[in-house]
Design brief:
The protein contains 1 helix and 3 strands. It is mainly β. Strands 1-2-3 form a 3-stranded antiparallel β-sheet, with no helix packed on it. Strand 2 and strand 3 form a beta hairpin. It is elongated and about 65 Å long.
Amino acid sequence: MKIEKEIRTQIFHVDNVLIHYEPQKKETSKLAVPLKEDKQSVSEHFGEVPYFYLATIRKRDGTFISEAYHRNLFATEEREMALK
């Protein structure tokens, strides 16, 4: 809306402005897998797991650019229950 208003302000006799945004294509994908304490078993609880396996994968050929295990620093944090 701000861009449309600016165009109408600076260019006379513009009735309609159509802005089509084409997102930039990314060369890589990020993968995050929640892991249990053994770093081998996948957990069903994303927020409470002790570890995450994180990987960056190049889309064009599936090559792993980087991969690492990270401890979940917030696994033991208390959370507020969502109101229903």
